[in-house]
Amino acid sequence: MGALMKSAVIYDTSFGNTKKIAEVIARELGDGAAAVPVSDFEIASLDNIKLLVVGSPIIAWKPSERMAGFLAKLTPGHLIGKKAAAFDTRVKLFIHGDAVLKITEALKNAGAEMAANPEVFFVHGKQGPLYKGEIEKAVQWARLIKSIV
Questions:
Q1: How confident is the model at residue 106 (pLDDT cuts 50, 70, 90)?
Q2: Contact call for residues 41 and 56 (beta carbons, < 8 A)
Q3: Is a pLDDT exceeding 70 seen at residue 44?
Q4: How far apart are the C-alpha atoms of 103 and 70, rounded to whole Å?
Q5: Burial 40-71, CB ≥16 within 10 A → b, else e
Q6: Residue 2: is its pLDDT beyond 50?
């Protein structure tokens, strides 16, 4: 992760589904974008980033523990002047919890300007795979973000 990175797609993943979405988003954002596991991301790297996209699976009705730890490090004003977007991966159930709204709230509280509405991507069962069409939905969402940023 070098100084040239303009966009970071920070994600956590349990079974690889969130990673797949993050990688598609980073690829669509283009040069200067990288998908980075939250466990490998250093908070100081945020200084070099103009766009921050954050994604997590829903675990126990909220973002993963690792993602929650990252979000807790974002202090008020930390993301002023930066654009952001959030997504989660979830099982398609009537009652499912919500990671994306908690992520969005943390990004806004840190001062980020949201570049797009939060997005959700569905997986079959706890382990996936992703539902048909979810990769294409990620491509379209990333293109929307890129057009705004």
A1: very high
A2: no
A3: yes
A4: 10
A5: ebeeebbeebebbbbbbbbbeebbbebbbebb
A6: no
- What is the pLDDT averaged over residues 37-54? 95
Backbone angles phi, psi at 79, to 5 degrees: -110, 20
Rounded Cα gap, residues 79 and 132, in angstroms: 34
Question: For residue 2, is it within any domain?
Answer: no
Separation of CA 15 from chain center: 16
SS3 103: helix
Residue 66, both tokens: 């690792």
Quick one: what percent of the chain has pLDDT higher than 90?
A: 85
CATH of the domain at 16: 3.40.50.360
Residue 106 structural domain:
7-148
